[in-house]
UniProtKB/TrEMBL annotation:
Coiled coil: none annotated. Residues 1-28 form the signal peptide. Residues 54-457 form the Amidase domain. Keywords: Signal. The keyword Plastid does not apply. It comes from Camellia sinensis (Tea plant). It holds the Pfam family Amidase. This is Amidase domain-containing protein.
Amino acid sequence: MATFHFHNTLLVFLGLALFGFNIDTVSSEFPIREATVRDIQIAFHQNKLTSKKLVQFYIREIERLNPVLRAVIEVNPDAVKLARKADLEREANATVSRSLLHGIPILVKDNIATKDKMNTTAGSYALLGSVVPRDAGVVVRLRKAGAIILGKASLSEWAHGRSPKAPSGWCARTGQAVNPYVESQDPCGSSTGSAISVAANLAAISLGTETDGSILCPSSFNSVVGIKPTVGLTSRGGVIPLTPRQDTVGPICRTVSDAAYVLDVIVGYDRHDAVATREASKYIPNGGYVQFLKPDGLRGKRLGISNYLYFGFPKNSGISQLFKQPLQTLRQGGAILVDHIKIPNYETIKDSMFIGEQIAMTAELKLSLNAYLKGLITSPVRSLADIIAFNNKFSDLEKIGEYGQDDFLESEKTNGIGELEKKALLNLTRASKYGFERLMRKYKLDALVTPFAQGSPVLAIGGYPGIIVPAGYDEGGTPYGICFGGLRGSEPKLIEIAYGFEQASKVRKPPSFKP
């Protein structure tokens, strides 16, 4: 038995080495805080850590910090039991234990369904007690890989689809989520809890969702890495929708490598999101995404830099000064910065994009949300009209009455996809084709570089991918990220660029937040 165990341990170590893991990096006093997936897996196989201890550590951190951060809505009551199961599988060298995510705790945004003892509510009391028919497609893949669903991360209620008056990070079930770096700073987007949690070490990794900016923006403001995948690359089956045309699920982690490990697990076909996942599956590279974690990933990459307001680095602006060093890092890493790119008919494209997106989404929200609600096994609400009625009846819950539900009310007035919506959708298609796609091909770009998450509308309307990486901190200590966006299916290039930048800059630091 001892010999058998030795040979299997050796095989595990060789497998880790194939991924470039340094098996001597973990000390005997293993520091869980800031540990990467790589660090944790090595610690598991050196018997310096167990999944049970890891889960218990994160639960204690949630109990300690979450009363102020409000980043987690629920902790999975079975998390410790699942961790013990993972430990036994590892001891038995079960096939599943060879996955890089095996035994790793992950928080998922509360609009991603889990068929367990936890709720899936999008942060709203209206769905409390509802029963989902099955795990979301991405959760099925996580469980199959041996990941432990630690709990549900908070979010801007209904993924910020209810009212523009509600601040980012607010939902009825938890109240206002708090940026762990600067308490007064907007945590941004709707995947706020997912970003705050990994930044503040309440979990190893997390999942967020994006319709327009909801992975990229909270990642930027909370000094973490976020990948917004090509729409359809990851399944939206079992995810509370805003619009299937733009919704996507992606990882939020502390490092590009961790995000790539998660992406490898969650991509692929799902019959509950068949059309989109079948079409996007052609983009999944043989051998997965981990192979693109190249330290020299910047070398030779053509990166577009614009001076357009809202999408770039305007000359002589505070933004240009803030990103002077990150842009220099790109150059020093061997990237070719294509400056001063011109977008023909920019104003027309910009107007079509912003106005068209709002018109289309207003109608699509009602259609997609009604379909999701009707598919629940049990639910207090079965339609958008029911949600509006619930919010009116219980407007005293937290700040529901104060923030209103303007977007819901506008959506409820719509009646499917009419002539107005068809025109808006056509304008969005044209804006993508004659704006972003033409720009990328004209200048032969590998990626468009934007500050913060400013490029998110461009990526959102065309279903394009984006990766954001910590780039620095302003004078007040607020983090900011740099975003790389590309054409559909360009995740391999984007991972190379993001990893190359991350390894060259290494600016991320944990928050000094104290409760």
